Amino acid sequence: MPMVTRRLRDPDINPCLSESDASTRCMAENNYDKESCSSHFLKYKNCRKFWNSVMIQRRQNGVEPPMPTAAERDEILGAMGKMPY
């Protein structure tokens, strides 16, 4: 597997892996009809926006690494009580 693909499939690097997989699966199941999968695309887009804002805030606060690990993301989402996206 190429390095880029491995990085995209790494849950510590890609916080929206499940949303990405869900949109890809939806496209495959619906004969690549984008309108049928718009809710999946929106959820993925909102996920990316949310984690990007977290990453920007962590950079401003000097927290390393800027993107929380998968375990840290689980704690953040658990503290929020619900999915923000």
Task: Give a verbal description of the structure.
The protein is mostly helical and 85 residues long. 64% of the residues lie in helices and 0% in strands. The protein is built from 4 helices and no strands. The protein has helices spanning 3-9, 17-29, 38-60, 70-80. Helix 2 packs antiparallel against helix 3 (38-60). The longest helix is centred in the middle third of the chain and has 23 residues, at 38-60. It is globular. It starts with a helix and ends in a 5-residue tail after the last helix. The mean pLDDT is 94.
Summarize the structure.
This is Coiled-coil-helix-coiled-coil-helix domain-containing protein 7. By secondary structure, the chain is mainly alpha-helical. Helix content is 64%, strand content 0%.
Mean pLDDT, as a whole number?
Answer: 94
Order of helices and strands: HHHH
Structure annotation, total helices: 4
Rg over C-alpha atoms, rounded to the nearest angstrom: 14 Å
Low-confidence stretches: none
Helix percent reads 55-70%
Q: Structural class of the helix and strand makeup?
A: mainly alpha
Q: Note the main sheet.
A: none
What is the end-to-end distance? 30 Å
- Give the CA-based shape: globular
Estimate what percentage of residues fall within beta strands: under 5%
Number of strands: 0
